[in-house]
Amino acid sequence: MTTEKAVTREWFDEVMVPCYNPMEMIPVKGEGARVWDQQGNEYIDFAGGIAVSCLGHCHPAMVNAVTEQANKIWHLSNVMTNEPALRLAKKLTEVSFAERVFFANSGAEANEAALKLARRWAADVHGTEKSEIIAFNQGFHGRTFFTVTVGGQAAYSDGFGPKPGDVSHIPYNDIAALEAQMSEKTCAVMMEPLQGEGGIVSPQPEFVQAVRELCDKYNALLIFDEVQTGNGRTGHFYAYQGLGVTPDILSTAKSLGGGFPIGAMLTTEKLAAHMKVGTHGSTYGGNPLACAVAEAVVDVVSSPDVLAGVEEREAWFREGLQKINDKYGIFSEIRGKGLLLGAALNEEWQGRARDVLVAAGQQGLMVLVAGANVVRFTPSLVITKQEVEQGLAKLDKAISTLVAA
């Protein structure tokens, strides 16, 4: 009889490609905004799997959806369609500007599809010389070679050989720089309506409006990367709905599946017509299991109570973080919107965001960073007040240990 060996953190160093530096503990169970590790230690989850677990862990609606679908059919490929994919696509068009949906497996793939659509549209309508894609410094759009090139962080894109061409980067929130860069050769402008990985940077209202107007002026498409901001994260189902500007193409993923891998590109009927049969595809895109779970997520998140509750929870976080800062004076500002928040470290604490993350973990709290100087919070959209208070108390204790060190 074979005895299974206990899985340990050391296995990671033995068998995994070293792209990551995971924490020492290994979670084995989750419920709501709480997680337990192999030793039974409990953690409050303010990380949400990097803005993915929008309904927390093992939400009944998601569990029921995947269980029911698992007993029906798992996979078909795109040689045929399936009911969960069609229902989900229909609902996404009902909660957004979109008329057409393309399913993928991740945010990077959704962005890849968005960029390919923009280039194909430009070539079909205006000619191949209209190919420039403008994006923004410190942006993040995924890890495929195309999307990591469009993302404005050289640390992620350098070192892999020649990059895809005709990609330009300018500062976020800089209207003058955008005006200077745009021309009739500009195919599309790609932006996050609130920069996530780049440090939780909100757009100025006049900047977003200017981007839309300049795209219209130069016959360029506006692509909103809502992989992190979408699906209720900012208190609107999609962040663009709170900005008064509508994109031509939108990418969504992360919390769309609440933890089950799925992504989608949303666009108009007119633009979608340029992606003809064989132009693009995905073996797993529109997978029945993924779409069934995502449909359940959309049903819950799009309810007025949940969306209104995001603003209420943002207030809980801002008030609690302000109290912590009043005691220790380590944050220069609390920024972001809804439950995509960042506590920016002041000059004295520059470069120590990961120190806060590690100290928080030692106190039983899971948080994130957004660069070296911002502690990021992307918890469940339905996290309870008690869980927020308990988590902030753990953060208080973690920071006190750093201050005392």
UniProtKB/TrEMBL annotation:
It catalyses: N(2)-acetyl-L-ornithine + 2-oxoglutarate = N-acetyl-L-glutamate 5-semialdehyde + L-glutamate. GO terms for molecular function: identical protein binding; N2-acetyl-L-ornithine:2-oxoglutarate 5-aminotransferase activity; pyridoxal phosphate binding. CDD domains: OAT_like (cd00610). Pyridoxal 5'-phosphate binds at G107, A108, F140, D225, E226, V227, Q228, T283. N(2)-acetyl-L-ornithine binds at R143, S282. The keyword Acyltransferase does not apply. This is Acetylornithine aminotransferase. The modification N6-(pyridoxal phosphate)lysine is found at K254. Its cofactor is pyridoxal 5'-phosphate. Binds 1 pyridoxal phosphate per subunit. Keywords: Amino-acid biosynthesis, Aminotransferase, Arginine biosynthesis, Cytoplasm, Pyridoxal phosphate, Transferase. NCBIfam families: arg_catab_astC, argD, PRK01278.1, PRK05093.1, PRK12381.1. The keyword Transferase applies. Homodimer. GO terms for biological process: L-arginine biosynthetic process. HAMAP family: ArgD_aminotrans_3. May also have succinyldiaminopimelate aminotransferase activity, thus carrying out the corresponding step in lysine biosynthesis. GO terms for cellular component: cytoplasm. Gene3D superfamilies: Aspartate Aminotransferase, domain 1, Type I PLP-dependent aspartate aminotransferase-like (Major domain). Its EC number is 2.6.1.11. It is found in: Cytoplasm. It holds the Pfam family Aminotran_3. Pathway: Amino-acid biosynthesis; L-arginine biosynthesis; N(2)-acetyl-L-ornithine from L-glutamate: step 4/4. Belongs to the class-III pyridoxal-phosphate-dependent aminotransferase family. ArgD subfamily. The gene is aruC. InterPro entries: Ac/SucOrn_transaminase_bac, AcOrn/SuccOrn_fam, Aminotrans_3, Aminotrans_3_PPA_site, Class-III_PLP-dep_AT, PyrdxlP-dep_Trfase, PyrdxlP-dep_Trfase_major, PyrdxlP-dep_Trfase_small. Transmembrane segments: none annotated.
